[in-house]
Queue: 3 jobs
Job 1
Amino acid sequence: MEAIKLRPEKEQKTMWFIGWAVPFVIGLVLLVVFLAFVPPAEAVWLVLLLCLFGWLVVMGLVLVWIPAFYKSLEYFIDSDSVKMKKGVFWKKNVAVPFTKITNLDVTEGPVQRMFGIGTISVQTAGAGGQQGAQPELKLLGIRDLEGVKDSIMERVRGYTISGSGEVREKAAERSDSEILGRMLEELTAIREVLENKRS
């Protein structure tokens, strides 16, 4: 099968901006309310100005970081795994082999549904652990959720079926005497270890 390259939709970037704009607006409203009810004192004004400056610096950095992070996100579905590249300052590459995938979850929050996008979470037995734990990989801002999920599942099924056939063929190639000979060697080694522990 041909490799699939995906990028998040532009609406994902818009959602991140909205997510940061809400606390910014709430912070400004609280500042205005505070200024309206607190008597002006020199120390209070200095603290408020420092807080406002810090808040504006953080929001300015966020406005620069969101487009850079969005641009760094890439997803690949190739012949043997689902891969993700991301990172602005620290680059991170994640690959989840089809043999490790146990579940694919599709989620759409209310704002995501408004924009027509969602998230596909790739779960593995080792990383997922208990129910509700973090997925191994998340494909954010995907428009064709069911199509992408079906494409991954089709490859997982195909890989599992062909992989199990290869294992059966390799096992059939080995003769029974070879397998029994290896088992005897292992049992002999275990016996020697146990006898050495007794003495």
Job 2
Amino acid sequence: MKIIENFLEEEYFNRLTSLFCSTNTRFTWFSRCDGTVQPSLVSDISVNAQPLNYFFTHIIYDKYLPRSPHYDLLMPFLEEIEKEEIEEKKLYGMRCLIKIRANYFPNTNTLHEYIPHTDCPFSHTAALLSLNTCDGYTKLVDGTKIDSVANRVLFLDAGEEHNGTTTTNANARFNLVVNYL
């Protein structure tokens, strides 16, 4: 695991947030980004809880192909990931792109954790970029919680279990995730 603050240049980061961090309704974000609803369950759902078995995701790259008109906008982000990999003395840097997606986790009255998951069933790296600051977080298998702070990137082995949360103090929790070898 590695965390880097202020990962992207401010002007570029602002372009990403203006696209992916709509302050309007879920429907507006959903239609604007051609998102799909992903089934997911929170770990503490109860009879009286809000329906929390979903979050929105916009697939940008998957199955070896760009899947979004926003793919080209992500090139500077991928270049920064590549630079970080090379600085870490990894001989080949980013060798294989697996998936890129934008996520929208809803606002809820109480903070809820989603059930732990792996992004793929094998060891690989995920670069998770928080697009906004909120009380949501990513929780690693060892219990470490990494707060959602705008322009903070978390590098983790996404083949190990981890989970995210909803947020209570922002319209939504937004992030971009790049999975790669």
Job 3
Amino acid sequence: MFIDRLLNQGAEPMLEETLRFSEARGRLIAENVANISTPGFKQKDLSVEKFQHLLADRAAQAEQSPPGSTAFDDIGLDVENTHRGILFHDGQNRSMEGLMSDMAKNALMHNLAIELLRRQFQTLEMAIKGQP
């Protein structure tokens, strides 16, 4: 109980949810790349802006409630069809450059969340061991 509360009161829940989001988005981007030449395939994506807005709202809610009482793991991830770019004659809006750019941005977000989470756990481990 104490460990759960300790792990759920800082930035860890938000970082874990960011990892879940970036993993799901990475899978969708990879699916889009794999099907780039499939006629009629509509690209799908997760909205980074919507996710960040939902996460910010939940973080504000967590500040107003007791430590560890707000859950972050129920933030919905709604897959949507993208409508950006040129629409080709087969109805597809493919752009390999855009997909690679999205993949790179997503990988950076994922790596940043992993590094921040690793440092959080490293700090917790030092506190448990009694190291300064």
